[in-house]
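Re: [ENG-882] Designed sequences occasionally contain unexpected residues at chain ends

Forwarding the minimal case from QA. Structure tokens:
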């Protein structure tokens, strides 16, 4: 396989992962409050989250926030508690956090 073929394969895999994670974010109702690019009146955008936590040691903390919700992690914004939204497993939360933090690399 050529280098060009490898790069196209990697780009295709990244696009598939993006689509899969966006579908997961939609299923878990993340997009009800969060947007990809801009902060909304209800919650910070994914890019803002990525910028705030880029290079930090906060991955596990963010996974916990995605799983449990709560407040006091972003100003006055309050994330719905776990019982008020679809349940998010540890693996799903890790996938979502990894995807959000990857936005800082773009």
């Amino acid at each position: 396989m050529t280098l060009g073929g490898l790069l196209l394969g990697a780009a295709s895999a990244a696009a598939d992962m993006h689509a899969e994670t966006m579908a997961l974010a939609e299923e878990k109702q993340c997009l009800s409050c969060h947007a990809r690019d801009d902060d909304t009146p209800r919650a910070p955008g994914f890019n803002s989250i990525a910028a705030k936590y880029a290079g930090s040691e906060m991955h596990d903390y963010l996974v916990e926030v995605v799983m449990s919700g709560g407040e006091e992690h972003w100003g006055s914004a309050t994330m719905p508690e776990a019982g008020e939204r679809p349940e998010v497993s540890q693996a799903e939360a890790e996938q979502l956090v990894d995807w959000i933090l990857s936005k800082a690399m773009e």
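QA comment: On inspection the terminal residues look reasonable. The domain at 3-105 is CATH 1.10.760.10 (Cytochrome Bc1 Complex; Chain D, domain 2). Proposing we downgrade this to a documentation issue.
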